[in-house]
Every structure is written in C-alpha cells, then in structure tokens.
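Q&A log
Question type: sequence-to-structure
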Amino acid sequence: MAKVTKMCSEGRNRPVFICDFSPPRGADPALLHGARSVDADFLCVAYSPGKSVRVDPVIAAHVIRQQTEKDVVFTLATRDMNKVAIQSMLLGAQLLGLENVAVVMGDRFTDRELSHVQDVSDYLPTELLRSINDLNQGTDFRGRKLRAGTDFCIGATIDLARDMDAEIRLTRRKVESGAQFFISQPTFDPDLPTAFIARYADQYDEELSPPIFHGVQVMAPESIVFGNIPQWVTDDLAKDRPGEDIALQVLDRFTEAELTSIYLVPPILRGGRRDYDAAQAVVEALAR
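Response status: OK
Response body:
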C-alpha cells in the first residue's frame, strides 16, 4: 500500500488523484463495487456523509483494498467518538494495514438531530492530528507506551469557502500538529488556492510544505451542490454540457497553474448515490 506523501514525492507527468468515495448505507459487499469504477491513485472513504448511518470507513477502506487492490485513505471525524474509541479504531486500522488517514471535524448536528444523538467531540481536529503523531511515536493519549506504534500518513482539510486569513491560521496550526498532506474543498477557479498558498507563504515566511489535493467537483444537472457554483457552470449545465467536460476545463486551468494534486469529487445524486463512472471519464481523459 502506498502512502499519499510518497506518491506525491515521485516524479510524475500527470496529476495525482484522490477520489472521494461514500461508504454504503448497507452491509452488502456488493454495494462497494462502485470502487472498481475509478482508476484514481487513491480512494478516500468518507466518514458518514450526510450524517447518515453507513459502513465504518476503516472497514470499508479495508474491504475496498481487498476487493480491488487500490490504494485508499480513510476519513476519521472527531465528532462521534471519545479518545479511547478513536485511538482503538486507529490501532485496528493499522492492524489491517491501512496507512493513510484524513482527519475532519464532521458536520455539526442540528438541534433536532441532537434529540436523537450526542455530539462527543472529545478532540479538536488539531488535537487529533497531534494524537495520531503520538501514536506513531508509540504513545497513547494518556502518555502510556504502546507495545507497537503506528505508522500513519496523516491528512487534514482546508476549506477555501471560509475567511482566508482565519483558514490560513488554522492550516498553520494543523501543520504544527503534524498534518502531512491536505485535502481542499472543491473550487472552480485556481486563483483562489493560488492566492491561499501565496498568502500563507507571505504570512509565515515559508512555503506550505505538505502537498495539497485541490478539490474539483464533477457536476451533473441533478447533482447535489455544496458551496458556491459559478454562474457559467450553472449555465453550461442548463445547455446540456456534460459535467465531465466542465471538470476537464477546470482541471486544465488547475494544471496551467501548476496545481496537479487533485481531490476529485464525483457527482452526488439524490439519496446519496454517486456517479463514479463520471469521475472515471475525467481520469481517463487526462490519462490520454
């Protein structure tokens, strides 16, 4: 199994892709067959997207790797488990041979949802990043030595929809807490991540060294939209332009801006279904 940072350090003449993958809302292994459709460098198994009950991302990532021999990243949210549960899960992931983890906070529960479920949030994301680094050094959250440490490649997130200066400060704390790579929420304009990277360097007098996988979303007329979609994208979809073609146009601009580590988000359809064939069409087009 490859680590994200190792693949990024290798000289490549094409983009490196992490493709988002939603674990299924059922325990039938056949529901994971969508993972076979995408020849991305890594499949990133999400943590309970939509705050719905789905297969645990560690287990889903392990089965995907067994079924497809694809490299994987599993996502771990701080929202739902205490420190004992999270670190125990991480030891289990290491036992299964999983090496890449991405830390997220998880969407906040609404007041209505909190009548059915409890928000634990025993860690902040920066605290969990630091804790995983401690596990890598063989120490648990109480400072006790483990009989065998872990060896995780640790990822974190960047959200360019937030205030840029605040997000830069948060990104800095994540770097200091041990983040080794970043996954950025989708944008349609490379000027935004380029400005973020430049402003980070100006503020801290050094480059943002961990690789960033810049989010590109494949759209469809019926897909669920997160964040702001440019008017030109909405207009092109209304004219029946394929979402894959739009994504390739965006990726061309990212490549021209030398942003070649990509977090590819397949169309999210009603009911939580994903169109992984659309994501594969984008990957194939860039491989030609």
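Response note: DSSP finds nine helices and eight strands in the chain.
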